[in-house]
Amino acid sequence: MSWLDFFRGRRAEKGNAPLAKDRLQIILAHERASRDGEDFLPRLQQELLAVVARYVQVDANKVQVNLERGEGMSTLAIGIELPAKPRRNAAA
Amino acid sequence: MSWLDFFRGRRAEKGNAPLAKDRLQIILAHERASRDGEDFLPRLQQELLAVVARYVQVDANKVQVNLERGEGMSTLAIGIELPAKPRRNAAA
Fold this sequence. Notes:
Two copies of one chain form a homodimer. The first copy, chain A, is of the alpha+beta class. Chain A is 29% helix and 29% strand.
């Protein structure tokens, strides 16, 4: 499943389901000019989720992660189903 | 310019330019079930960039940000042109 399928799938799913929910989708794509480049996306993932959790409540059971590694590009797609009301106690 | 155009445009540009560079692209899409939902993407932006900067050198002049706000969805697209060699001193 590519990151585009991931995104499109979620949109389509929303269309079919009458119960609309807030969702946050994060897609990272790292294009590497050479194969020597470090693939840091997996390590970024946890830190990104920690940042997001300062703004909205994140239930670990409502997080989908899809990592794809190719020769020239790695993609990390994170889909988060959000509660209706976001938290407002984020650091200023 | 939608976030998809942003992404595709960068890919197309790469195809035309023989000088390949490392790039990191971050796309956030926040689907809101109601119009009351808080739009926190702009505030997330700086924190996300700070996280990324712990893994790779980020030159502020090489960062493109595109924020689109719609009724049901906001998207934030960040494109970063990376130096060839990423930093490795990220927090464990």
